[in-house]
Amino acid sequence: MKKTISVPEAGREYFGLGRNASYAAAERGDIPTIRIGKLLRVPVKAMEERLEVKRETA
Description:
Layout: E1 4-6, H1 7-15, H2 19-28, E2 34-36, E3 39-43, H3 44-57
Antiparallel strand pairs: 1-3, 2-3
Helix pairs in contact: 1-2
């Protein structure tokens, strides 16, 4: 399993979002990101933990 995925890949996989909507969600902080140089990546573990917390509070 990959440890990080691209922002569009995370948006599509977890929320069914397109590319632009995925980057907008990342900018709002809805999708956790890390920056590696100019590259913006989504840590899979952090994304799944965030979704688990939201599921428990819902």
